[in-house]
Amino acid sequence: MTDTRTPRPGPAGAGIPWPERMLIGSGIRSAARFLPKDRLTRMFRSEAEQAIEVARGLSVDEGRQRVLVERFIGIEESSRHWSVYMALEHLVIVNSAIAAILPQLYSGRVITGEVGIEDAEPVPEAGPEQIDDLENLVERYTDLVDKLGNLRAGTTLEHPWFGTLSAAHWHALATIHNSTHRRQVERIRQAL
Predict the structure, then answer these.
(1) In terms of pTM, does the model score above 0.85?
(2) Which residue from 44, 73, 149, 186 puts its CA 20 to 30 A from 91's CA?
(3) pLDDT per residue over 61-112, tens digit each?
(4) pLDDT 10s digits, 124-138
(5) How far apart are CA 99 and CA 140, in angstroms?
(6) Does any domain span residue 102?
(7) Which of 43, 148, 161 is nearest to 100 (CA)?
(8) CATH of the domain at 64
(9) Which residue range(s) make up the domain with 162?
(10) Which residues partner with 64 through β-bridges?
(11) Residue 2: CB partners within 8 Å, gap ≥ 6?
């Protein structure tokens, strides 16, 4: 359903209950352990391309229209009132950040600082440029992952929700994250 009213979202991360976070974390660990890197990369690409395809089928006004969607597994309360272009921008932000840390983790470099969930918020003004930005990011990301060897090697970095993650875990997280926001994009389109 289209809703132009602004909901009262909680802070970033507040809308995913603890048991759901544990379930997603378990999914990340299982995917990283049992799925080959190349299969995760293909899934990463496919999920992003599906979201891009939906966005390409919309007018600019439709792509910018914020829609309040029902919460589903993996989506934060604060993310429920986004436009398609905002969801794509969020994927660009998050996947760019993961692409930056993968080679460091792979090579064993310790990364200091914390991953900030609130740093991945898109702007309401996000526009159709996000389609090309995400398309270009997917190419860079998949090329990078293809060049890296065994992502299970190296060091780890703490995620605020999912705990200690290796490069393989972060790659699985990126894939699952693409899937979550692809579903969001499809729900937004359906509600327009």
Answers:
(1) yes
(2) 149
(3) 999 999 999 999 999 988 999 999 999 999 999 999 999 999 999 998 877 7
(4) 999 999 999 999 999
(5) 8
(6) yes
(7) 148
(8) 1.20.120.450
(9) 18-191
(10) none
(11) 65, 67, 191, 192
